[in-house]
Amino acid sequence: MHKIWFTSDHHFGHNGIIQYAGRPFESVEEMDETMIRKWNEKVSDKDAVYYLGDFALNRPERLKEILKRLNGSIYLITGNHEVSALSCKKRFEWVKDYYELKVNDDTVPGGKQKIVLFHYSIRNWNGKGKGSFHLYGHSHGTLEEDVNSLSFDIGVDNHDFYPLEYQEVKAIMLKKESALQILRRDPTDSKAIENLL
């Protein structure tokens, strides 16, 4: 079975992001090469990657070279830095501003897991409270984790510059769901919630 991956905010070619996001690289070349390697360590050519924005801030010619090296079919949800990526539209399966993905999963009610994909964090999304997940980017790990929400920042700065596979996303959300159940029973039981997350 082919895998489904999620990631965002690589900012390929963007020297300023190293300092802004506190990335552990000496140069933009080292950053780009590390992120390409980590992408390809996980993603195969037959896999799907849902990319939640801010692909690159470099020349389109350079981005074309990077895109040729990345495995998988890439679906781009646009961020606020997509000039280079939009000039390489043919490399993407599609380009959208927002998307509601339904992943076949026999372990969830109805056999499909809905995941709302958007570059920005949303406080209230379609299906929130009914098991729908929300993945976002943009914030580079600066937003405080919301234990009351089945959402999180999928950006590379939060995941050691690796994409996350659907089962990894689901595992994180199941922990959050358990934390929500504890909060509903006893809102003061912060110790149990800390142990879960």
Automatic annotation (TrEMBL):
SUPFAM superfamilies: Metallo-dependent phosphatases. Residues 34-148 form the Calcineurin-like phosphoesterase domain. Belongs to the metallophosphoesterase superfamily. YfcE family. Pfam families: Metallophos_2. This is Calcineurin-like phosphoesterase superfamily protein. The lineage of its organism: Bacteria, Pseudomonadati, Bacteroidota, Sphingobacteriia, Sphingobacteriales.
